[in-house]
């Protein structure tokens, strides 16, 4: 039995050309775990409405953040892979849930190296059906159809893992060194409230009422909202942040359904209008900097803050390919390899 690792991130378009952006958004938004409505309605919404207007707007946004080497999200995931691969003896490849390299290509690469035991690492600290779950479901479908000899194990959501909390907290501490700020906002990618209820394995716990996420429940193993608030809480404890100097919000909503609140854009606007002059912002739902951090937060967010009367807007980078994060991932991989070998 030979072991290998598949690091999986969200993915990006092949280029900033609106045609490539349209193809990417089509694959992304037709995923039933992203826009979770009946297929006929999803097809109408995505192909009949969203893909007629959004690709041009998104392409313009991608143009603002694109690097010479390509999409920041892909380049940063490649850098992470190179560093992790150099630290462990287990072959490590990357894959994207949408776009390239696909999960099928990643598994094929591992297969070609003789790997038949795969550790899947969804690069999302918090579980969501639109991220972690869709990766695992697709990987299993591909395994059954193309790689029946392979077996999979996956790294669970690591939102509260002490190693991850330490890496994220240290990254915040370093970025804030010498920075004068009044408020630190933890901005997570949003999801429709409906997704939270759908992922509730108890079918009755998640009410999104401000209390459920603080009341112990086995539902929290799959509750994105709980896991986001827990990441904030544990980082705040690690950094000894004072109550009232930090808060949590949710960004990037799409469509008219209610998404998790408070919304990041409105929060930034409100803070500026209420007199906050210096704020810092961190985006812990993203391991790699991407469109949502480099454009929506660092550009649009800053503009909202300035227009609302704010002055200094400090954006903390994602953990990307930081050495302590690379070492953490390599250690998790090595631990998995040892345990699996001992059990074999
Ligand atoms: C219904 C729509 C969407 C859900 C639900 C959603 C959840 C979700 N997404 C991420 C991480 C990323 N999303 C990114 C871009 C992006 N997300 C959506 C829509 C939903 N996301 C769209 C339409 C886009 C494309 C850009 C745009 O048109 O605005 C990215 C960036 C990709 C990049 O190339 O840089 C990331 C990363 C999470 C973590 C999440 C749920 C928890
Ligand atoms: Fe998204
Ligand atoms: Fe909850």
UniProtKB/TrEMBL annotation:
One GO cellular component, as annotated: cytoplasm
Question: Gene3D superfamilies under this entry?
Answer: 3.40.50.1400
Keyword Disulfide bond applies:
no
Gene Ontology annotations of biological process type: heme biosynthetic process
Keyword terms of this UniProt record: Cytoplasm, Heme biosynthesis, Iron, Lyase, Metal-binding, Porphyrin biosynthesis
Report a single Gene Ontology molecular function: ferrochelatase activity
Q: Which residues bind Fe(2+)?
A: 189, 292
**Matching InterPro entries, A to Z?**
Ferrochelatase, Ferrochelatase_C, Ferrochelatase_N
Give the matching HAMAP family.
Ferrochelatase (MF_00323)
| Protein's name according to its UniProt entry | Ferrochelatase
Q: Which organism is it from?
A: Spongiivirga citrea
Instruction: List the taxonomic lineage.
Output: Bacteria, Pseudomonadati, Bacteroidota, Flavobacteriia, Flavobacteriales
């Amino acid at each position: 039995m030979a072991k290998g690792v598949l690091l999986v991130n969200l993915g990006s378009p092949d280029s900033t050309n609106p045609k490539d952006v349209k193809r990417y958004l089509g694959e992304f938004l037709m995923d039933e775990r992203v826009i979770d409505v009946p297929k006929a309605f999803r097809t109408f919404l995505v192909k009949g409405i969203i893909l007629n207007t959004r690709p041009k707007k998104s392409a313009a946004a991608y143009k603002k953040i694109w690097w010479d080497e390509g999409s920041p999200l892909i380049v940063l995931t490649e850098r992470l892979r190179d560093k992790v691969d150099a630290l462990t003896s287990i072959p490590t490849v990357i894959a994207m849930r949408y776009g390239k390299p696909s999960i099928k290509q990643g598994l094929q690469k591992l297969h070609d190296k003789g790997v038949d035991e795969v550790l899947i690492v969804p690069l999302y600290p918090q579980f969501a059906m639109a991220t972690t779950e869709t990766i695992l479901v697709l990987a299993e479908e591909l395994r059954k159809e193309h790689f029946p000899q392979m077996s999979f194990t996956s790294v669970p959501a690591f939102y509260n893992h002490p190693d991850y909390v330490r890496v994220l907290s240290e990254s915040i501490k370093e970025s804030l060194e010498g920075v004068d700020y009044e408020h630190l906002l933890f901005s997570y990618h949003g999801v429709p409230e409906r997704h939270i209820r759908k992922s509730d394995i108890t079918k009755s716990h998640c009410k999104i009422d401000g209390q459920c996420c603080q009341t112990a429940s086995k539902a929290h193993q799959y509750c994105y909202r709980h896991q986001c608030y827990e990441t904030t809480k544990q980082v705040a404890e690690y950094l000894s942040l004072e109550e009232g100097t930090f808060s949590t919000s949710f960004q990037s909503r799409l469509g008219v359904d209610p998404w998790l609140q408070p919304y990041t854009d409105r929060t930034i606007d409100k803070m500026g209008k209420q007199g906050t002059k210096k704020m810092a912002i961190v985006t812990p739902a993203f391991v790699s900097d991407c469109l949502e951090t480099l454009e929506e937060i660092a550009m649009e967010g800053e503009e909202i803050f300035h227009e609302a009367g704010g002055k200094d807007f400090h954006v903390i980078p994602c953990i990307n390919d930081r050495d302590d994060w690379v070492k953490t991932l390599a250690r998790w991989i090595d631990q998995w390899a040892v345990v699996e070998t001992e059990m074999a």
